[in-house]
Amino acid sequence: MIRKTIAALALAGAIVLVPAAAQAAPVTYPASEYSITCSVTQVETGRTFECTVTGPNGGTLELRVTLPNGSVLTIAPTSFTTDSATFSLTAPSELGVLGVTAVSEGSTVGTATVDVVSTSTGTTDTDGLASTGFENTGLAIGAGALLVAGAATVFVAARRRQLQDA
């Protein structure tokens, strides 16, 4: 019995300590020399926006844009003369997510995504803020009805129990 207990404790200790040993020597990766940022994260169809790629001077860079339908457009390579390059893009008429990938010397150096939305995505109020509303009124009424029915059931059951005990 004692052997089984010791074996179980040893197994439990190993299970606990093995992940700790694996994490004891953290691996640090060098920060990428490149980064990509787009001026928007959501854009209406047909609107123009910019994506800026920063990186070391003297490199060449191209942008690959994956459209919502899966096709890929390649924007001609540009040489870095400063530490950044800016690309002007126009959102397609297709709704969905654009994948913007920066490629330098044949290697992917950064990615960004931009959602393409309809021009009639929402109405705006006088402050220019998006107008939102509650579209689940039926669910709220149903939940309220279930709450009332449950309370009534509890009340009736308590009343019957009280009458039976008397």
Name its key features.
166 residues; 5-stranded mixed beta sheet; alpha+beta; 3-stranded antiparallel beta sheet; 2 helices
Outline the structure in words.
The chain has helices spanning about 1-20, 135-165; strands at about 35-40, 40-45, 50-55, 60-65, 70-80, 85-90, 95-105, 105-115. It is of the alpha+beta class and about 170 residues long. The strands form two sheets. It has a five-stranded mixed beta sheet with strand order 2-8-7-4-5, with no helix packed on it. It has a three-stranded antiparallel beta sheet with strand order 1-3-6, with no helix packed on it. Strand 7 and strand 8 (about 105-115) form a beta hairpin. The longest helix is centred in the last third of the chain and has 29 residues, at about 135-165.
CA-to-CA gap between the ends? 57 Å
Overall SS class: alpha+beta
Oligomer: single chain
Q: Which strand-content bin applies to the residues?
A: 25-35%
Q: What order do the helices and strands follow?
A: HEEEEEEEEH
How would you characterize the largest beta sheet?
A: 5 strands, mixed
Quick check: average pLDDT? 79
The helix content, as a percent range, equals: 25-40%
Instruction: Provide the spatial order of strands within the biggest beta sheet.
Output: 2-8-7-4-5
Overall geometry comes to flat
The strand count comes to: 8
Our Rg estimate from Cα atoms comes to: 30 Å
Q: List unreliable stretches of 5+ residues.
A: 121-125
Work out the helix count: 2
